[in-house]
Amino acid sequence: MLAKKRYIPTLDGWRGLSVIGVILFHGRPGFFADDTLAARLAAHGNIGVDVFFAISGFLICGLLVEEYQRTGDISLRRFYIRRCFRVLPPYYVALGAICAFSLLGVLPVNHTLLPSCLLFYRNYMPLGIDEHGGFYTAHFWSLAVEEHFYLLWPILLFVLKPRRAGKAALLISLLVFGWRELVVYHWPTANFATRTDMRIDALLWGCLAALYFPEIKRFFERVQFSELWLPIAAVVLILEKIQPPGLTLLREILLPALILSTVLQPASLLGQILEWRILRWIGTISYSLYLWQELFLPELASTTAKGAFGHFQHWPANVLAMLLCATLSRYLIEIPMIRLGHRLAASRPNLIAPAHASPALS
Fold first, then answer.
1. 3-state DSSP call for residue 76?
2. Which of 10-19, 120-129, 230-239, 270-279 is least confident?
3. Hey, which of 142, 162, 165, 362 has its CA 20 to 30 A from 29?
């Protein structure tokens, strides 16, 4: 359903913008004075996670559908090999660094939460924003949601095929929204916002954007307005300001639409901004940047690191440190592991036939 062109520059721009928003959100007490306009804007930076989800759903589903159109099948083996080598090596290195600093007595880390990080169910554990030493692993909740999506959606797409998968994605998304509203209504003070059953619709709306991409593209082409991102962004901002009922559903629908408006109209003002080289480069390291940021961004209520490491948790050293770690992770771990994953996925599994098997079956 996606165009044959695999690389979409504006998506790297969106990744860069999103990770900047998340970093500003997490580090706003250290970056801005209280009750300033910048601090109030940074308080909405967590929307960057929803943008990441929308991009993931759009790209993952789009690549799988493209494979189905090209070959008539979806190879789950190749998909999971590529994902494992793409996601796990940099993630476990970052987690290992947190554990190492904890063992050295530098960081306060709740070690009982580490199994949930290793096995990707951190989003079902209390975040423990520092009271219980959970701050430095709290941001891994979103990685758990992504991993659950990677596990479930390709299988669903493989079984249902693209034509029926769209209806299933729409139904599941609406059910998740209904479930979320029901839970919030009965337990308004509880924090369930990180659970997969509460957030996976953010990825599924991205999947729907990929599944119905040709129809969406034809609609955009009929509209004679080259800045379609503008009304969509205005609606998103207004909704965030007034916080109407059903905001989460509207947000998850509008964010993929906003992203697609720049994908299909890259010459628009926002499209040109997203294609700035520096923003796109930040987008290329955004995964590693997301993994490493929390080491250098303790929130106001959190306990800072002990010893000399504490100096790296203050502006501007913290920004330079996270950029350095993310860059090293990108070029020394991510890229080599991605290439290895693609090579292994492209190779055919060795099938060793039993001694009595005929050549035709070997």
1. helix
2. 120-129
3. 142
In terms of Cα–Cα distance, which of 210, 323, 333, 322 is closest to 263? 210
The token pair that represents 361 in the structure block: 């079956």
Which SS3 state, helix, strand or coil, does residue 228 take? coil
Say which amino acid occupies 276: W
169 within 8 A of 76, measured Cβ to Cβ: no
139 vs 117: CA distance, rounded Å: 10
Q: Where are the domains of the chain?
A: 9-347
Q: What is the DSSP letter of 330?
A: I
The DSSP annotation for 299-319 comes to: -TTSPPPSGGGGGGGSTTHHH
Q: Are 150 and 83 in contact (CB under 8 A)?
A: yes
Tokens, residue 28: 């706003």
pLDDT in tens, 127-163: 776 556 788 899 999 999 999 999 999 999 999 999 8
Residue that wins the pLDDT comparison between 66 and 306: 66
For residue 360, pLDDT beyond 80:
no
Q: Is the pLDDT of residue 188 over 90?
A: no
- Neighbour tally for 30: CB within 10 Å: 16
Name the pTM for this structure.
0.92
Q: Averaged over 283-308, what is the pLDDT?
A: 83
CA distance 140 to 118: 10
pLDDT for res 325:
97
Burial of 183 (0-12, 13-18, 19+ CB in 10 A): middle
